[in-house]
Amino acid sequence: MKSLQGKKLLVLGGSAYMIDPVLKAKSMGIYTIVTDLHGIEKAPAKRVADEYWDISLMAYDQLVPKIKEEKIDGILTGFTDTFLLAYQHLCELTGLPCYATKEVFETTMDKAKFKQLCRDNGVSVIPEYELASFDPSTITEKNKIIIKPVDNSGSNGVILCEKQEDFKQCLDYSLSFSPKKQVVIEKYMELDSISISYTFQDGRVSLSTTDDRYVHKASNGSAVTCLSLYPSKYTDVYVEKMDGRVREMYKNAGVKNGVVAVQFFTDGVDFYAMEMGHRLTGGQHYTFTQMENGVSVLDCLIHFAVTGQMADFSIAEIDNAKFKHTYCHLYILGKQGKIARMEGLDYLKSIPEVFHLSQEKKEGDEIGPDGTSAQKVIGIHLKMKHRNDLDRIMQNIQREFHLYDENGNDLTVELMK
Length: 417
Hints:
It contains twelve helices and 20 strands. It is α+β, with helices and mostly antiparallel strands.
């Protein structure tokens, strides 16, 4: 890509996830500024930026004049749906590049609208029930349901309902996480899960990654990704049966630039769309595509932010989801509580197969509720010769790495086997 030396980028959100984008932008010669309402002690991305502001993402009356005064060239966000509409509105108010319209974001962020988009384009979705006509007496051991807020992410507000007498309590719980006070009721699917990502450049789309997704399930039915293996064992059948339809669906939705990631349930024959994100995801799949074929959607989104173009080359000519190597994103999860001591971090960094490590929590941080993204402590990216190498690596990590609270209790969740 052409030199971006001297460009100024405003990054929305100072969470640990945003450290990667800030450091990448700085390596590209871009001056970085991070803003949100959190102080620097709770916004680790601010610590690595060239500058930071303690201004809310939605304080448009403060941000807009400051963006113009500081001659900001672009705005970037990612990893959470929560910031997308603020990002789009700020770009609109300041005339800076935004990779999607408000209408596209509203469709892709809302679980109900996304499912309707799928139906309209012949993409199967998880069987769903209308709240107004749903009969709780149909809930049985063989017909469990999942209730989800339509407008939240990170598994917040998602709950499994296994008994008809629990329906009202589960419904109220899920509604409490929905700003719109709307939920989706779905059949509980006990199938394999896969994630698919696409990259868009001026309307041209390429299949970037496929991965088998393994989850840690909480007692309430919510689940959080704990392991992803690239490429998926279902890649060929997905390409044969779904790829064309999904590409056409996003074209019809008006997606032009950026990245989309969509999750499916599958039995190896049929695919059922679950949910999607039109943004960078916590899986940071761009680290794998960078290693495999030399293209990173993170780099492209930074480039888009300050130039209005994803790249000065054809991404689709390089992108290829049929990886020749095996990659893994392994999450270390913690039980809810405060981390007093973290043991074995240096060991994780010494593992030969590890090429990237994202520390989302540190000593003194709180681990969030079971079954949500708030219990993710460390993300480990591995490149392996064989899938069966993972068993050995996980056994060693389980032995060497631990999280403890102030009473000496081990907060480390056992790694999936």
